[in-house]
């Protein structure tokens, strides 16, 4: 099987897992905090940062769609783009240092993402404070799960390239 076919199959798998994760929600004021980003973070490690970014973007869109886009479609697109950027950064940093990669992913998604809403009218500090703890918790779960699964896949493959 060629590399491109394998990549398409992996992408389909990770996108499907993102949809499944979007159905596993955690308590939050918006109802859009879920296990949707774990497959995107994992894809960033297995396939590459850009593929992971695409999966993370779709994961958030799936969660938002299933929740009825409570913050409006344009704002959820913005969050999806942020998720994609964060997954890409996570994948690149993790390859250099896994611990720093994990910390960067958790902080970007758990603190920077809700902080990006502070300057927006109608959100501010109250929105940040309402979202920071649910997002930090979910970010920790999503990132650590992705890390553990990746380590398991590397071990199964004899530390060779997973993809």
Automatic annotation (TrEMBL):
Pfam families: ECF_trnsprt (PF12822). Keywords: Membrane, Transmembrane, Transmembrane helix. One of its GO terms (molecular function) is transmembrane transporter activity. The keyword Membrane applies. It comes from Thermovenabulum gondwanense. The keyword Transmembrane helix applies. InterPro entries: ECF_trnsprt_substrate-spec (IPR024529). The lineage of its organism: Bacteria, Bacillati, Bacillota, Clostridia, Thermosediminibacterales. The chain crosses the membrane at residues 7-28, 40-61, 73-91, 103-120, 126-150. This is ECF transporter S component. Coiled coil: none annotated.
């Amino acid at each position: 099987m060629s590399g491109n076919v394998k990549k398409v199959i992996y992408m389909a798998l990770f996108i499907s897992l993102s949809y499944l994760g979007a159905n596993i929600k955690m308590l939050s004021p918006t109802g859009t905090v879920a296990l949707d980003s774990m497959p995107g973070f994992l894809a960033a490690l297995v396939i590459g940062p850009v593929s992971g970014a695409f999966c993370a973007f779709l994961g958030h869109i799936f969660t938002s769609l299933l929740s009825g886009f409570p913050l409006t479609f344009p704002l959820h697109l913005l969050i999806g783009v942020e998720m994609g950027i964060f997954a890409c950064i996570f994948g690149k940093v993790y390859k250099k240092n896994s611990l720093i990669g994990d910390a960067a992913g958790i902080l970007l998604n758990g603190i920077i993402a809700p902080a990006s809403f502070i300057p927006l009218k109608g959100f501010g500090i109250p929105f940040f404070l309402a979202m920071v703890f649910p997002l930090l918790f979910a970010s920790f779960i999503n990132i650590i799960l992705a890390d553990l699964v990746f380590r398991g896949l590397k071990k199964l493959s004899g530390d060779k390239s997973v993809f």
